[in-house]
Amino acid sequence: MEWATVQHLDLRHVGRGVNRRLQPHAATFHPTQALVAVAIGPCIIEFDAVTGSKLSTINIGAPVVRMGYSPTSGHAVIAILEDCTIRACDFDTEQTCVLHSPEKRSEHITIDTEVHLALTPLQPVVFFGFNRRMSVTVVGTVEGGRAPTKIKTDLKKPITNLACHPRLPVLYVAYADGLIRAYNIHTYAVHYTLQLDNTIKLIGAGAFAFHPTLEWIFVGDRRGTLLAWDVSTERPSMIGITQVGSQPIASISWLSMLKLLVTVSKDGTLQVWKTRLVVNPNRPLMPANFFEQAGIESIDVPRILSQQGGEAVYPLPRIRTLEVHPKLNLAALIFAVKRICFNFQT
Question: This protein's superkingdom (predicted)?
């Protein structure tokens, strides 16, 4: 198994005339189509991920900090910007609308600020919050939709991440002590809690991923611990745990076609894992044996960057994050120097 570049997207035309060359800093895949949106400066550009053709460009007035395709709207991206506004960007009409404005006009964040964004396919809303603050806000994803509302969670603890279940009406809120609460997205009542005993220390989820068919949740802790939870019963159980490294886990993705899990740590280390199945249902599963490193070659960054007309970069850039298409065999690597390339695993 190896990594190979499909396309290097041509973003050189963006930002011409400015004093410094702009670089891409965020990307997100369409949930079902081979489309990718890339944020560069104040623009969001949509590409065909297979051919590399540019399809549409929207200038939203400020750089994107976090974004994702809306699962309830066919062709729109929801983005939180450096001016702390949340905008919906419709690629069909090439129009944008403000969904939320900050209470203080002076508020400002950067592309390195941790902002947590969670979208659900079951409601036209987005949940968001800032790292280590103690509140979550929900707002509609269409103009004139649900007004911004602060959700009062039952715990007054710093929040480290948010995620929505892809099939069920559940919002996961991760707290700084490693505890994760599952709330109903309609009533905000607590469904269950994911928490380990006191012998295993966690400091808060840095990333979530979901199995496409099984009720498995993968959690990457900021302590460098990778966990898997089975939430198919009323009493969820931890089914897998391993130490990825000493660095926080910044990104987790499930590769559906390969049935593998990819983690990216804060220092740029990328690792691929396979999950063990229960061979004998009469014997209990050992969580320590659930994850096993997969036999896939390490990413050769110079080779990846030089394929398909790209240019080698020295010193070698650090991998910042990985975006994976939920259905297709495509992934986007974003580097710390803000180069972007698209990769296919065979």
Answer: Eukaryota
